[in-house]
Write a structure and sequence with these properties.
Elements (H helix, E strand, L loop, with lengths): L1 H4 L1 H26 L3 E7 L4 E8 L5 H31 L20 H9 L8 H9 L10 H21 L5 E6 L3 E4 L4 E7 L3 E2 L4 E9 L7 E4 L2 E6 L13 H24 L19 E3 L9 H8 L5 E5 L4 E7 L2 E7 L11 H16 L5 E2 L3 E4 L2 E4 L4 E4 L2 E9 L7 H28 L2 E4 L5 E4 L5 E9 L18 E5 H11 L2 H11 L9 H14 L7 H5 L20 H15 L8 H12 L3 H19 L8 E7 L6 E7 L4 H16 L11 E9 L7 E9 L6 H11 L13
Parallel strand pairs: 18-21, 21-22, 24-25
Antiparallel strand pairs: 1-2, 2-7, 3-6, 3-9, 4-8, 5-7, 10-13, 11-12, 12-13, 14-17, 15-16, 17-18, 19-20, 23-24, 25-26
Length: 742
């Protein structure tokens, strides 16, 4: 379970365990090699001592110290990773507060110290149950007769002390525990007493026992056994409470404590419904997937770039053993688009289960989790059946997903090709059966945000997608159109993630899948087809503009539906701003009664074209900066409306310097007026306008408040209302406009 939910923490824990094992192995080797040396000294009066010291081979004490340091560091890293991965995983369900603050596992020596650490947002974004566990297990907490909790508190205290001592230069040593020292003599000499010394650090020559002999004469034979345990120890601050309280036991307890925290965090996380953020893949970051070809590390020649730019479709393909690179001729030059491998799978027992989770997580990470419907089961006769491996539903369009994962070790290419084709045929039949079921009646499903909603599935326009999860997909595998009434598209999981990472909008991805409606001729060819269609979009002439929009002062804004550059690559901060606003809207609900109608509102906002989002994000960020510095007593506004077509929802975005009853009413008036103005030559009864208002906050809890209003149908404004609203908003109001979409 730890690896499934916390792979990084699991990795750190394994490294800590490995370091501990290496310490034990090296220590055993050193002891067997005669590390500990002993001496017996008898004085003329018959008194004597048994002593011992360590004869360290060169570099071995330092090596043990570094192993211990590594073990402690990995345990800390494990605990910190539990917090960091929790925040990251749940960030698809709730926007992270103060993301610039570092997240870590806090340990304090007082309630006040812990309060200060938590106030720094070190655990913001984790579950409340995670925070409660960490608070309860702080070393300063008093005992409550719970042995496990007390051991966790004590172990965390060890980690704090060890880290401080190592930083101060302390080194690993040994601990001597005399148990049963013995002295052997021959008559007439007699052993009168043997007394063991207290345990202690064996950092230099140490007396282990003292004895007294009777009738001793110089030269008499005296032999002795130390009867002492020599244990590996970090002696700095070590004060054992009993014989059983050894350094090894303390280190074992510390490893067990980190393990118990990891198991508990994972168990608590498993109880939260909904999607998680997809696991990050190795190597590439988002900014490394789209670079100017002239700056590529592959050093394309000028002849290669010139030839590509003059080709029919301006697209080239280079595929290495584990990397797909597309050379794309865009309006402003030639770019290299790296299509990363599919993200890592979580540590499930079955590859198929892990693939299902990864597919859902990708859609929730780069799209919105509200449109991801996790697999559900319903009773059929005496048994139960699963409704696909998941659904995507947004704006009246749906996708039925079937995932086929290759378990075990792949065989020869011919065998793997046969396996893929067989799975495609089986999945197509499953999709047809699922669509037939969905067309009969509605279904109750759970979204990726963990909300139960009723889906009017008969009213949804469905297509099917088969996702192949294979560690080494057969190359150049030709696939044919699957028979059936429902269009079916076959994708590699890599290509599914490519589409979501490229567009970062569920509405856009679902629209793309409905647009293509069939598989590429060769499995794995989706990225190339995408860029062929993107080139066609870029070359297409803009559609006609509604004259009423121009009369209202709107400015045409022509952007391709399929951008060549990955969404947000031109300004990630501005593009992310739009996603943050969508998250704010999605999480602003007060109860389950709002969940189903709110799906429609979110779908409307997510219909905003990808190519327009960066510009809108800049507008919102600039607007917040502007209204925040408004003069005292003044109310500053920035507003923008967007219309993608005569029958599409109108989207309005506004930024205001304050949120009051007055500004709420003014915002409502603005949205009603803009909605009413669409009615010239249009039936308002079938139209919707959605407005989003941002107002800055100064309390540090979050940066702004988000207010949403929806208008359906004719608002039936009176002549008096229109006069007031027009006087308020149609007299040189800055920032009011509308745009059209090509």
């Amino acid at each position: 379970m730890i690896e499934e939910y916390y792979p990084q923490a699991h990795g750190h824990l394994q490294k800590a365990q490995q370091a501990k094992a290496e310490m034990a192995s090296l220590w055993g080797t050193l002891l067997d090699g005669g590390l500990a040396e002993e001496s017996v000294v008898t004085h003329p009066d018959g008194s004597g001592v048994i002593s011992a010291w360590l004869a360290w081979p060169a570099g071995r004490q330092e090596e043990l110290t570094e192993l211990f340091r590594g073990c402690v560091q990995e345990l800390w890293a494990c605990l910190d990773a539990l917090v960091e991965e929790s925040v990251e995983a749940f960030s698809v369900l709730q926007r992270v507060r103060r993301p610039e603050q570092p997240r870590f596992f806090p340990i304090a020596d007082s309630p006040e110290g812990l309060k200060e650490l938590l106030a720094e947002s070190c655990m913001d974004g984790t579950l409340r149950s995670h925070v409660a566990m960490v608070q309860d297990c702080q070393p300063f907490q008093s005992g409550d007769s719970n042995e496990i909790v007390d051991r966790l508190r004590t172990s965390l205290g060890y980690l704090v002390a060890w880290e401080a001592a190592l930083a101060a230069g302390a080194v690993i040593g040994a601990w001597a525990t005399p148990v049963e020292p013995q002295v052997h003599v021959e008559s007439p000499v007699a052993v009168q007493s043997v007394e063991a010394e207290p345990p202690g650090a064996l950092d230099a020559e140490r007396v282990l026992a003292r004895y007294q002999l009777g009738s001793f004469r110089p030269g008499s034979a005296v032999e002795a056994q130390a009867g002492t345990y020599i244990d590996l120890c970090f002696a700095e601050g070590f004060a054992p409470a009993s014989v059983e309280d050894t350094f090894d036991r303390r280190l074992t307890n510390a490893v067990e404590a980190a393990t118990r925290f990891a198991v508990s965090f994972a168990w608590l996380s498993s109880k939260v419904p909904g999607s998680r953020r997809v696991l990050p893949g190795p190597g590439l970051g988002d900014g490394d997937t789209w670079v100017e070809a002239a700056r590529s590390s592959r050093r394309w020649s000028s002849e290669e770039l010139a030839g590509l730019a003059s080709s029919d479709i301006g697209l080239g393909r280079v595929e290495d053993a584990d990397t797909l690179i597309l050379m794309v001729s865009a309006a402003d030059g030639v770019y290299e688009r790296v299509v990363p491998n599919a993200t890592p799978l979580r540590g499930h027992a079955r590859r198929g289960t892990a693939a299902e989770v990864a597919v859902q997580d990708a859609a929730a990470t780069w799209g919105l989790p509200d449109f991801v419907m996790v697999p559900s089961v319903e009773r059929k006769g005496r048994g139960v059946r699963e409704i696909s491996d998941g659904l995507l539903i947004v704006g009246g369009r749906g996708v039925v997903v079937q995932i086929k994962a290759r378990e075990g070790v792949p065989g020869a290419p011919e065998k793997e090709s046969s396996w893929v084709l067989k799975q495609l045929a089986a999945a197509a039949k499953q999709i047809s059966g699922t669509v037939r079921r969905l067309k009969t009646q509605g279904v109750q499903m759970t979204t990726g945000r963990g909300r139960s909603v009723r889906i009017d599935s008969p009213a949804v326009n469905w297509i099917g997608v088969i996702i192949i999860e294979h560690p080494a997909p057969p190359p150049n595998l030709a696939i044919t159109t699957q028979a059936g009434a429902t269009p079916v598209i076959a994708l590699l999981r890599r290509d599914w993630e490519f589409l979501f990472n490229q567009l970062r909008s569920t509405h856009a991805v679902v629209g793309y899948l409905h647009r293509i409606g069939t598989s590429t001729p060769v499995l794995g060819g989706e990225p190339e087809r995408y860029y062929e269609l993107a080139a066609a979009d870029a070359a297409a002439s803009p559609g006609p503009i509604n004259p009423s929009w121009i009369r209202r002062g709107g400015q045409p804004c022509n952007v391709p539906l399929l951008p060549a550059a990955p969404a947000g690559s031109d300004n990630d901060k501005a593009h992310t701003m739009v996603r943050i606003v969508l998250e704010d809207v999605a999480t602003s609900l007060t109860g389950p009664d709002e969940w189903e109608p709110w799906q429609i509102v979110l779908a409307s906002l997510d219909s905003l074209p990808v190519g327009y989002r960066t510009d809108l994000g800049r507008f919102l960020l600039d607007g917040l900066d502007t209204v925040t510095t408004a003069e005292a007593g003044a109310t500053a506004w920035r507003m923008r409306t967007f219309i993608a077509g005569p029958d599409q929802d109108q989207l309005g975005f506004a930024v205001c310097s304050a949120l009051t009853d007055h500004t709420r009413a003014a915002f409502s008036a603005w949205l009603q007026l803009r909605h009413h103005e669409r009615g010239k030559g249009t039936d308002l009864a079938s139209l919707t306008s959605v407005g989003v208002l941002l107002t800055p906050r100064t309390d540090g809890y979050r940066e702004w408040d988000t207010t949403v209003q929806v208008i359906n149908g004719d608002p039936e404004l009176s002549t008096a209302d229109l006069r007031v609203y027009r006087d308020l908003w149609n007299k040189g109001q800055e920032g009011v406009g509308s745009g059209s979409e090509a």
